[in-house]
Amino acid sequence: MRRVCFLLKVRQDRIEEYRERHEAVWPEMRAALAETGWHNYSLFLREDGLLVGYLETEDFEAAQAAMAATEVNARWQAEMAPFFEALDGARPDEAMKPLTEVFHLA
């Protein structure tokens, strides 16, 4: 299982609404994530908007592609895009670039 961590930046004026949206993630979105290989998926949000994502998956690229093929993901990404800074025209899920793991205490 590969551990994946990524960073995004939530707009300062949208932080509270972003939190609220994630308290009520659509059941079909949760199901799609699980079905496409996203395990132990967590999001952590700092007060300045720095978002840290973590997940475990067999194949991150395959999990991303499988989610991208779902209708629910297209709707979710369209709704979430305005919450983020510096996407440069990408959807939020396309802007998730994995960080390089440099240490893990097993």
Automatic annotation (TrEMBL):
| One GO molecular-function entry | racemase and epimerase activity, acting on carbohydrates and derivatives
One protein family per Pfam: rhaM
Please give the superkingdom of this protein's source.
Bacteria
BP GO terms, sorted:
rhamnose catabolic process
UniProt name for this protein: L-rhamnose mutarotase
Source organism: Streptomyces violaceusniger (strain Tu 4113)
